[in-house]
Write a structure and sequence with these properties.
257 residues, mainly alpha, two-stranded antiparallel ribbon, 4 strands, 67% helix, rod-shaped
């Protein structure tokens, strides 16, 4: 009997990703607090320019190193995703924020120019917004899985309770009733699959320009699993089990499927 274990594993995967997402939001909050506490140096005079961020020769403090240190402490342990982790702090900054900010923090040998400080804070705020959007999408994915699993467990439990029953020990009326109940289970599975398809076709939006497709999220979450679409796979497996059970009942009762 194929049960909804893939859905159970998917629920654990979503729970882990939700916790990681919330932890990263908290890490970005701490990082921004540290960056705000760093005194910015005004740009001007003779200095070094990297993608528009300027540090003067007179402002040779360790501000940019403080930013990198804060990033390493708070954000880098959570950088990347389940499929790929940046190998250096500069790669991690580019992954989480932008290449321009990563290059500026890596090559500006001086203080923390005001424009660079603001750019870092802006990128961190943008990343926090993305994490908030991901959290909302993950929460909706969790709700979808929970609702599906409730019905899948019901069908699976009914089948499991009868898997070892010899049909010859049951009366004709009981077997006819079982056959009808299996029709009901087919209907339940069709409804679960249809609701899941509607969920996958939806998006969760942060604003009118930024949205996350639930299908894309599911493909990311379950790419390394045996079932990329665990609910639909479980529905198909259980539907096949119901069909086989009905065939067995008809063969027993009437001598043909």
């Amino acid at each position: 009997m194929t049960d909804c274990c893939p859905v159970g594993r998917a629920r654990r995967r979503v729970a882990d990703e939700l916790e990681r997402t919330r932890e990263k939001q908290r890490a970005l909050d701490r990082f921004e607090s540290d960056v705000r506490s760093i005194t910015a140096t005004p740009a001007g005079g003779q200095g070094t320019a990297v993608d528009g961020f300027v540090a003067t020769g007179a402002d040779r403090t360790a501000g940019h190193r403080q930013v990198r240190r804060a990033f390493e402490e708070h954000v880098r342990p959570l950088s990347g995703d389940a499929l790929e982790t940046p190998t250096t702090v500069h790669e991690a900054i580019a992954t989480e924020f932008s290449r321009d900010v990563a290059v500026a923090l890596a090559t500006v040998d001086g203080g923390l120019p005001s424009r660079l400080k603001q750019a870092v804070l802006d990128e961190s705020a943008r990343r926090r917004d993305e994490m908030a959007l991901t959290e909302r999408a993950l929460d909706r994915e969790r709700q979808s899985l929970d609702a599906a699993c409730e019905h899948l467990d019901e069908v699976r439990a009914w089948l499991d309770d009868r898997v070892d029953v010899r049909l010859s020990t049951r009366e004709f009326g009981t077997l006819v009733a079982w056959h009808g109940r299996l029709d009901d289970h087919h209907g339940t599975l069709d409804d679960v699959a249809a609701r899941r398809q509607r969920h996958l076709d939806r998006t969760t939006a942060m604003d009118v320009t930024v949205a996350l497709s639930h299908r894309t999220l599911a493909e990311y979450l379950y790419a390394e699993r045996s079932a990329t679409f665990p609910v639909l796979d479980a529905c198909a497996s259980l539907a096949a089990a119901c069909t086989a059970a009905q065939r067995g009942i008809r063969t027993h009762l009437f001598g043909s499927a």
